[in-house]
Write a structure and sequence with these properties.
- Helix 1 (7-13) crosses helix 15 (360-385) and helix 7 (129-139) packs across helix 14 (338-349).
- The chain contains 15 helices and 13 strands.
- With 387 residues, the chain is α+β, with helices and mostly antiparallel strands.
- A hairpin with a 2-residue loop joins strand 8 and strand 9 (277-284).
- It is globular and about 60 Å long.
- The structure holds flavin-adenine dinucleotide (FAD) and iron/sulfur cluster (3 copies).
Length: 387
């Protein structure tokens, strides 16, 4: 039996944010951070530094709590349906007003699609619909810029990248199952007078921050140029334990280290930043042997393990279009807003993508994954309040 988690349960389960002594440093150190990049963007004192794949709050912090307020893991508003309605600017069709959980959120239509563009097929990991829709958005003048994600450096973690042409866009194809911090790019977007309209690819947590930002007069400016939000469905920010082990083995990491707590601040004796490269760490074993790790390895061993525990949104409620995988070479596409519908129809009309029927299997997949994710939040709640 599935348990229905109400919005007030979610508010309780994030009591971490009600504890005034908490900072985003704690959110990070306790593994709840998903590296959305919002806190650094809004900090008025420049007190947040991303270094070696981690978040550090330095002594400039004046405890104003602006970062905590915007943090994508702060669901004090309970993921409320009115915020979803205002974002989607549409009639409630599929979202239950009693806050009973419907994993699809609100939407206008839902499909199973794939790209028809051969250049996109070469670079995309799944069906290529994300790149194709962004490309259409450029073509019809809906956007002149996009924020997507890419590896700027080999072995580093991916970051948000700003692209202005289809050629640049195509280079960024494929899913990056790692933190991107892409929202920090909004500052650059805001201050660049040559940029007027932006499309962005996000995870559900980042789309939620954008919706929160729009509501707050102090942060609305960051979203003023955003015209299209494409959200990738997300069951978990982290690769599975088995995937991590395989990755570490490939990188030559001794098996004994893979279970190690990678909290560098608490294990200063063992971990230090590589002085030659601030994206790498040096680990010194008890026997004095040194290992040089990229921050990608560090992230794989520890960070983001807990982000899904506070995250009730699988399908990206706050996007214009949500896109997931429905097979090796096709995408589930959930069209939510008027803007989303326009660019989706244009993509079909221009033969950039083709659509198939949304099958029972697709429905089962989204429903199962979405409810399972919500169940994790319920379990965290139980752990915090009932144990
Ligand atoms: C962390 C994570 C978890 C996911 N979990 C699921 C899941 O449980 N179920 C499911 O159905 N789908 C999941 N997806 C989505 C799926 O893997 C594909 O990303 C999605 O179907 C889009 O495929 P596509 O072929 O259209 O992408 P493409 O056409 O290749 O385009 C992807 C675009 O998104 C950008 N991008 C890639 N990674 C990120 C990122 N992390 N943040 C922001 N932008 C990014 C790329 O730069 C590119 O522009 C997940 C994706 C991620 C990143
Ligand atoms: S509490 Fe305020 S000053 Fe401190 S890190 Fe957060 S936003 Fe910056
Ligand atoms: S989840 Fe986002 S806002 Fe919260 S601490 Fe992490 S990067 Fe900052
Ligand atoms: S599980 Fe939730 S919080 Fe973690 S990366 Fe995915 S959408 Fe973001």
């Amino acid at each position: 039996m599935w348990f229905i988690l109400t919005s007030s349960d979610i508010i309780k389960s994030v009591s971490i944010f009600n504890d005034k002594k908490k900072t985003v440093q704690d959110i990070h150190d306790e593994g709840y951070c998903n590296y959305c990049g919002a806190c650094k963007l809004v900090c008025p004192e420049d007190a947040i530094v991303y270094q070696g794949g981690e978040i550090h709050v330095n002594s400039k912090c004046i405890l104003c709590e602006k970062c905590l307020e915007i943090c994508s893991q702060n669901h004090q508003d309970g993921y409320n349906s009115s915020l979803i309605q205002r974002h989607n600017n549409s009639k409630i069709k599929h979202y239950n007003n009693n806050m009973k959980y419907v994993p699809f959120g609100e939407f206008r239509d839902i499909f199973n699609c794939e790209t028809l563009k051969s250049a996109v097929k070469e670079t995309s990991m799944v069906g290529g619909v994300t790149l194709s829709i962004l490309s259409t958005a450029f073509d019809i003048g809906l956007i002149d810029t996009a924020i997507v994600a890419d590896f700027e450096k080999k072995d580093a973690f991916p970051s948000g990248v700003i692209v202005k042409t289809e050629k640049q866009l195509l280079k960024t194809g494929g899913s990056k199952y790692l933190p991107t911090l892409s929202l920090e790019k909004l500052e650059e977007i805001l201050t660049d007078d040559n940029i007027e309209s932006v499309g962005i690819t996000t995870l559900p947590c980042q789309a939620y921050v954008l919706a929160k930002m729009r509501e707050n007069p102090n942060t609305a400016k960051y979203t003023s140029k955003i015209k299209l939000v494409l959200t990738l469905l997300c069951g978990s920010g982290l690769p599975s334990r088995e995937d991590v082990k395989k990755y570490l083995k490939k990188k030559g990491v001794p098996e004994s280290l893979t279970e190690l707590s990678a909290n560098r601040r608490k294990n200063k004796r063992f971990w230090r930043l590589n002085p030659q490269d601030q994206q790498r760490y040096i680990y010194t074993s008890k026997k004095g042997k040194e290992y040089d790790f990229s921050s990608r390895v560090i992230l794989a061993t520890k960070s983001r393990q807990n982000c899904r525990r506070l995250c009730p949104d699988y399908s990206g409620f706050y996007s214009d279009i949500s896109i997931g995988g429905s097979g090796l070479k096709s995408n589930i596409v959930i069209v939510r807003t008027q803007t989303g519908e326009k660019v989706f129809q244009e993509s079909l009309g221009r033969k950039s993508i083709k659509r198939r029927k949304f099958t029972r299997w697709n429905y089962f997949l989204v429903n199962f994954m979405g409810k399972n994710k919500r169940k994790q939040v319920r379990d965290s709640y139980k752990e915090v309040f009932l144990s």
